[in-house]
Amino acid sequence: MLDVYLTVLNMSITAGIAALIIMILRASLGKVLPRTFSYAMWAIVLYRMVCPVSFSSIFSMLGGLKPGLDTYTSSLKAISLTEALDFEGLSGHKAQELGSTPNLMQGAWIETTGGMEPMQLAATPMSTDYFAAAVTMIWVLGIFALLLYNVVTYRRLCKSMNTSTFFKDHQLVKECKTAIRMKRRVDVYESDKVESPFVYGIFRPRVMLPASAAYSSEGQGREQLRHILLHELYHIQRFDYLIKPLAFLALCVHWYNPVLWIAFRLFDKDMEMSCDEGAVNALKTGTEEDYAATLLNMASSRNGILKSCALAFRETNAGERVKHIVKYKKPGLAAGVISVILIILCVVGLLSNPVSLAEELKDGQANVLMICSTENSNTPDTFLLLGYNDDRKEVNIAVLPRDLAVLPDDGSYGIAERKLSGYAGGNPPDAVMEKLSETLGVEIYNFVKLDTGVFRDLVDALGGVEFNVPIKMVYEDPYQNLAINLEQGRQVLDGEKAEMLIRYRKGYLNGDLGRIEVQKAFLGAMIEQNSDIKIGSLKEIYQLLSKGMDTDLGIDKSKKLITLFRAAETIAFADLPVLQESDDPWAPLMLTPEAKEEMKAKF
């Protein structure tokens, strides 16, 4: 339900922006173009309110808004990210119960004073965002309350009309239908319980006339009746009796957006004024003043039922409508052409979304290599492959062993040179991408290179990460300026301690593979605990990273990739099947025969 609400929130903001633009056009061109133009423009807002999908165009007016908006809502969707995380991909085991994280380290071994023991991490309870649940519930209750209120008032209206009788002047009704070229049958009633004319009914729309007006069937009274009937029949001819309920239902869904309430009010005004224009066009020339007099006589509705029911058409905004119709002139060819051109431009600009990065991706895939080096060192320490698949709306993360063999054992290279870390230490990132693409059998499109100092700053910027350190980690290496001293147990790791955790490898039986399992578990915890990070923080983090980051990604593409990654429905850690062909613990790791096919399936 939260995902539904956030999708609606995205639609609501987009529709609100479209409504504001149309309000500006309406205010600036209202005296030049007919209200029929404004009325048609509100269809764009209605579409944005009810339809979550649209076409893409380079002419979209939402080019600067939509990517940021998608990032915002996808960031909020990430509140429930823990439910979407594929922990089966992390550990090979699904969570045993909802609300708990499985043993991410099952199957990995660590070295202790008592020998080799399987590594275990305590289950981490998933946190529930009660605020998001409360907001969603309030949203649903608001929709229900609005619908219930209007259903009750509409039933009251229909019940009050049970005593109405057929309007007897069938000839006048026929003349009005002929004037607007209306062929369908419409029933016209009169009642002494209403004070102004209106249309009601969805499946069988009817015109309801006040009895006082219906009795005036001669002279000036008959002409006023003609004006009234033309107006109400024009509503039916144009299917306003279906459009307005649909617009109101959409408004009920977006009831929390004040801009859309204002838009609905203006839409209602434009509907009435454009209907006045249609009625005047159906009359003889020089009748604008007589029609305005009719509006003044019949416009003030004091019926409580009509005022409270959004689904009935009643005469409102008498002053504005009178001023408009007195000044109204039937639009000429120039005004008609301008109206059509503006409508087309607004349809393309406001209905279309900017061309997204997903449409620019090669085969719907984006693979980015992240290379992390220790400070003041040319030899990278950690490698991540991030892949986004647009067809599956899925992000895959593979932690690549630094000991992975990328060069053949033909005697031309030493052991260190054959490994990924050694190759990356002596070659530029472009060459590393090309070599890994060849080794893994997947195309890597971009790279991001940073050092552990940036990683420390990132963890600190996130407020630390709560993690269960599996063993006491103690290790010193003066050649790397590395001093690790990390206590065992659950604790909040700041940037410095997080760096110790991901760099420690001595105590694992399977060396770098054991470290990779810890790194995956830590990344999973970091994603889970910071899945609800807000846009302001994202911007700060991006600026922080960019200071110490080398990448071939431009700013625009980086932002779009962040949007795609955070909007993904699933985040999974992909395993890279490797084997150690030698008893030498420092020997390079080789890919298994099926490794390339498995990587192609994910990346």
Question: How does this model look, in words?
Answer:
This protein is α+β, with helices and mostly antiparallel strands and 603 residues long. The protein is built from 25 helices and 20 strands. The strands form six sheets. The protein has a seven-stranded mixed beta sheet, sandwiched between helices. The chain has a five-stranded mixed beta sheet with strand order 4-5-7-6-8. Strand 6 (198-200) and strand 7 (206-210) form a beta hairpin. Helix 3 (66-77) packs parallel to helix 24 and helix 10 (240-253) packs antiparallel against helix 11. It is elongated and about 110 Å long.
In round numbers, the mean pLDDT is 78
Supply Rg.
Answer: 34 Å
**Most strands sheet:** 7 strands, mixed
**Structural category:** alpha+beta
What does the overall shape look like?
elongated
* Uncertain stretches: 78-128, 301-305
* Assembly state: single chain
* DSSP summary, beta strand count: 20
Number of domains: 2
Q: Work out the helix count.
A: 25
**Proportion of residues in helical segments:** 40-55%
